[in-house]
User: Fold this.
Amino acid sequence: MLIKRAPDIKSSEITDFQFYLDRRSFLIGMAAMALAPARSATAAVSAGEPLKAKRKEKFAVQDAPTTLKSITTYNNFYEFGVNKDDPSRLAHTLKPRPWTIQVDGHVARPKKYDVEELMRLFPLEERVYRLRCVEGWSMVIPWIGYPLASLIKRAQPTSKAKFVEFTTLLDPAQFPGQRKGLLNFSSLEWPYVEGLRLDEALHPLTLLTFGLYGQVLPNQNGAPVRVVVPWKYGFKSAKSIVRIRFVSEQPKTAWEKATPSEYGFYSNVNPAVDHPRWTQATERRIGEFRRRQTLMFNGYADQVASLYTGMDLKKHY
Ligand code: MTE
Assistant:
């Protein structure tokens, strides 16, 4: 991945969390009043619209959330280009609705879901997670979604299902970065593919995500649906997915195919295993000046370390 310096964002720009919650409740309340009579259970929503979700304290880190502005303007989404501001500048070309997600492979109940149906299958929760990018910056994001495990259990994986593969939309008309020769250089092979071991995908922290900051997911953050895996480097959290496939072999991921010596399948946040070209021991939280120590498993060790008992994490980086 390319390394770019984070813009200097003053700490005064970090939203006070209480202010955000008060404002969000107000906005959601107003919107609910305005929309209630007209809304059907499957009505389409669009980016920026309020999205109601109950906050799960158990899954909310205490760190101050990064500002909505930074979260939506400092992005990695190579389908739009390699610069941090490409996604916010160009994401209007993505049409996130209507949208379908194919759930298939080794499952008893394969199904093609319309995103509106998928979003309403289980109660939405707000979870405040740390996101640590492999490039050395981090954010704190109030996501909205439900555990991927809920959908997986509904699909009923068979005994052959050992891994879950996530595929992003392939459409050069909507994603300028997928057009050959256009917009800078990217060594990725399209579509963007990511994967998890089945037990990682079933972990209660793994979130199927439809919104952030009380709103429907903005295009640049992976509308209409993405995965968020907070104990792994950000690139494991594939955006704008169209397929969730249950497979028996470890999927070949986009970054592994591009640079296998730099990006492994597991990609757990690990301050003790450096990237071949830079340290992973510290990170720069967007909005802060001083670098912080990176935490093992991004601070989620209590919850996820047991998934890797007996594994050499230097080898399985
Ligand atoms: N998903 C797709 N399809 N394409 C991408 O380029 N970038 C990843 C991940 N998911 C990426 C992607 C990386 S490197 C990071 S750090 C996170 O998205 C960034 O998510 P955010 O922009 O919502 O903060």
The chain has one domain: 52-308. The two ends are 16 Å apart (CA to CA). Residues 17-35 form the longest helix (19 residues). DSSP finds eight helices and 13 strands in the chain.
